[in-house]
Input
Amino acid sequence: MYGLMQEVPLTVDSILRRARSVFAAREVVSRRDDGQLHRTSYGEVAARAERLMGALHALGVRPGDRVATLAWNSHRHLEAYFAVPCLGAVLHTVNVRLTREQIAWVVRHAGDRVVLVDRSLVPALQAALPDLPSDLRYVVFDDDGRGAAAALPGALDYEALLATAAPLPALPVLDERAAAGLCYTSGTTGEPKGVLYSHRSTVLHAFGCGMADSLGIAQRDCVLPVVPMFHVNAWGLPYACALVGSKLVLPGSHLGGDALAALLEQERVTFAAGVPTIWNLVLQSQRRRRRDLSALRRIVLGGAPAPRALVEAWQAECGVPITHAWGMTETSPVGACTHAGSTGLAPDDPADFTLREKPGRPVPGLEAKVVGDDGRELPWDGASSGELCVRGPWVASAYFGIAAHEAFADAGWFRTGDMATIDADGRIAITDRKKDLIKSRGEWISSNALENAALRCDGVLEAAVVARPDALRDEAPVLFVVARDAAAPPSAHALVAWLGASFPRWQLPRPEDVHVVDAIPKTSVGKIDKKLLRRRLREQQP
Ligand code: ADP
Output
């Protein structure tokens, strides 16, 4: 056979080479712990990543080894994003909000050799020390170069290490099918499971992020990933930005609404991404003090259902269109998304908001189907709800270190654990997580749908619905809300009456199952923690 195209491997070093050569001057801005902004460029990030490769090699890191990070979003973390995979090793991003037991568990499970850790997060590692391998090496990211003084055995200061390290004379030849990254699911519904991203999947996902009907980031963009680099590669944005040449703004540990709003304004951010709770915080900040967000052309909201009330408020009050995206750790994560105006409607047209209640069509490159309990595919009629299954080049085919898992039982497809419908236009609507659905007398109630409606009720800031066991109905919905104004909370009867306008009676919570609370617990990545809410209910202390 001849006359075919070149077979250039899809490896992360190709993104690094591009960033270093054609986008060398493009800015990378990070917020330091003291709140100051650190300014650097892709050229400098690439040069330091090359020295980091030398340093890691000198520490004994070899192809296939795992190198962990325990860090916020910063330029140093970005350097590790490139250095570790380009050395042939695997970047294991550890969730900084894990408990000390969980940190020790994932580090051991992954078999990490080195941990690169932010100075502010050293105490979390110290607490886990008794359960960490004794030969683990520690390198501390510190703005002021005091890292070596960190109370971790043999800790090295990152800046001092880079200052003396030399790039390797030759970089390893990478295999596109080798692992580049490792991320554990945040365990919202069970034990964390490791997902290994390959070089190939990482590069293809980055290409995908640049497509107009996927995330659609471009060279002209200034991108703020609020979504953490310790979870699902910050939705792949660091790699995608370096590939397309977007300016990157990294918020460090400053994730409050005011700090983010200030950063959006100051850096003239055009594209930002995060979970709904973050965009709720930033909206509240805007309501207190208006910042100039006129540069912001798109917010991508994903990781949890997009509340229509929030999407409408961002459009009406700030003029910022919200994209609704769906994805998971296992899908790298971008799986489906719908932008404002994607069918030619105005972004403030009610019909466009209705479209964006669904994450919508799978992004180019992915395929989707829904299956019933018997595993048979259900029709695309927008009504038949089944488990969502996806396949594509950035979808996991197994969990790290788990020989067989039911999620991969349907050959070539990944069973997501999400319940969904697909309509005749191929648009996916997430009904609920399978484990969050409420079963009432044999019929299903969607917690998402109730939450979405509650959020549209006057005076409601946050809402969460979980099931409680019920002698008559099997399960009954329980609604938790946080009031917008704690001094004037909505009454339980008013809330039930509001929901009664959109739902049949059997789907409604009883007034005594409505709890106005000060705060709704969140998971390590800012999603509503339903596991904890259910536990509190069992222990009778909502
Ligand atoms: P975890 O399962 O631990 O939260 P992930 O970050 O991988 O970890 O979360 C993926 C899950 O988040 C999906 O399976 C789905 O239940 C939920 N999710 C993500 N995006 C959306 C969305 N747009 N609408 C509804 N649920 C979503």
